[in-house]
Structure of Dynactin subunit 6:
Amino acid sequence: INIGKNAVVCKDIEIRGEIQIGTILHPQCKILALKGPIIFGQNNIVEENVTITNNFDYRKRKYVEGTKIGNRNIIEAKARILGNTSLGDNCVIGAVCSTKKDEVIPDNTVIFGDHNNRRTQTASANQQSSLHTRHLDYLREVLPKFNHVASDSQEAVTHSTHSTHSRKVKQTASH
């Protein structure tokens, strides 16, 4: 596990396999690299109860699956990216929304609504970047105040419930 310098990883994160994290992971996320590495770009926001795996189990419903997550994306609570879908940069996957299996999501795509509607963001790149940066700064300040976080990969420990390659973020005092 490689946790980047500006990443914020809350407690109760289940992590298995080869993972590079340069992002913010809210509590209750699972990152399961069972069929190869999962590489996150920089400055992504992954909200509560999202599972990212490259070994999808169709019996469960809260999965995001893929091996490449670009930069500055927001994956909202309970979103699903199916198959070996690759997510570009500056995308938003809305709460409880999903992609089709094994697709390439272009940069600036927003998936929203009951029917997984899609549109391309029309806000200027500078405006979008400014809002996203403020959101990241806010989360980097607030999440450690109300959650235990791991500041680097040294704080990840072996978690033997699932396998010998499984890791769970260690609870560390932040108060």
